[in-house]
């Protein structure tokens, strides 16, 4: 059910530096041209009653040099609901420099990817289903899986990471976390401080951040996209009424969903398509994640305002493409958020966060309907202890979910944290420009302050002005 649209990773040598690289079996995964090594590691399903086990899938990309260092990089994906094996393509971008001298270990969090993914087969008519039908389908999915959802917490996932470290024979590890993976990485570092050499956190979630309360951050990213368009002559000239057009669309959809007859972007068949406020807001939110995508937003809004919804619907459908298995686990998302976040989403917090924000209350309403079906006990929010391991924090200035202020809050609970902001970037910056080199330099000498002026040279993408795509 990937269409689930709740708005939406010390140079101690191991006994044998190549021990982990020899573990497991040769495997070939989508997004990687070379063969990797995969292994399935048994862990307790319930750490309070470890009799029953599940397996955690890990993908190991061995260091490229024979004289590999003994401290690998563990990669924790986002979501919650994304698997490490889903982000294999970043081996050639974000982690290419690090892999020269260190193993890269991608971990599929329990309930994701190849670690017993909690998911259901998507119905063939998913693109034409209403939000109400999608919610009914998700409820059916959650009930049909019959999983012990209360055992799929961040704490359990962190304990799984320690089991992986022990099974692979590493003494200390470096941990990269992206988005939700930064929450998991921080929890792991607090739970097992002796096991963590360094942390690299990209798109940092603050420990007290409530995932569904994202209205202010999303609105700030949207406003910034408007400002950037107004500052660029070609964009401002092409879309002079961008703000009022967006406001008009939002107000119209707030009065009720709009149905338009159009050619299906996938099949070209003529059919009716319903655009609700929830679908509209969720699509805008997802577009804002990437600055390159955000720079298509003026064109999408202007086209929709003029009655040409095809580009907007095509972009909306792109997030529900079921041609691959690399999709988020909606039930795992619910298992975590319903236990750890929703109980802290007080009516006052929800009202304050959504005031003046285009996202509205749809996300909270979905959780209110679906969390009782998941039926998990609230997880008490622990007072976060200080993290002593050196940490590199990375943010995109245009991030609509984990903007720099979240990283700044997390850094206050760290003994040694360096925080760098890429001005021309959104959510997740590790693959951009000189950032892969900076991450390698940090891992080699974590006590040294980085010279990160090069991130200011990362260019902003151009705006899309018409159907031909972004400006050259």
Report on this model:
With 472 residues, this protein is α/β, with parallel strands linked by helices. The protein has helices at 131-145, 154-168, 180-191, 215-231, 233-238, 242-254, 277-287, 291-294, 297-305, 310-318, 330-340, 347-354, 362-374, 404-411, 435-444; strands at residues 25-27, 36-44, 53-61, 73-76, 104-107, 173-178, 196-202, 258-263, 270-275, 391-396, 417-422, 464-466, 469-470. The chain has a 9-stranded mixed beta sheet, sandwiched between helices. A two-stranded antiparallel sheet has the order 8-9. A hairpin with a 6-residue loop joins strand 8 and strand 9. Helix 11 (330-340) crosses helix 13 (362-374). It is globular and about 60 Å long. Mean pLDDT is 90; it is low at 1-19 and 321-325.
Give me a quick take on this structure.
By secondary structure, this protein is an alpha/beta fold. The chain contains 15 helices and 13 strands.
Q: Give me the strand/helix succession.
A: EEEEEHHEHEHHHEEHHHHHHHEHEHEE
What is the tally of beta strands? 13
Spatial gap, N to C terminus: 37 Å
Indicate the mean pLDDT: 90
Structural class: alpha/beta
- Estimated radius of gyration: 22 Å
In which range does the helix fraction lie?
25-40%
Shape: globular
Supply the number of helical segments: 15
- Side-by-side strand order of the widest sheet: 1-2-3-5-4-6-7-10-11
